[in-house]
Design goal:
Helix content is about 95%, strand content about 0%. It has about 50 residues and is mainly α. Keywords: Membrane, Transmembrane, Transmembrane helix.
Length: about 50
């Protein structure tokens, strides 16, 4: 049983690191788009308010 676990630990660690990196990448990319959308909404609202 120890042989099996010792053989599986390195691939599991690598897989976990890759999954965490992919999740962080997706979250950072989605967060950037969300911030861009919010800033464009705010600028469009500000331009509408100043034109009134």
């Amino acid at each position: 049983m120890n042989d099996v676990l010792s053989a599986l630990i390195p691939p599991l660690v690598v897989a976990a690191v890759v999954i965490i990196a992919v999740v962080k990448l997706f979250r950072s990319e989605a967060g950037g788009r969300r911030q861009e959308a919010e800033s464009s909404e705010k600028s469009s609202e500000a331009s509408e308010a100043s034109s009134d």
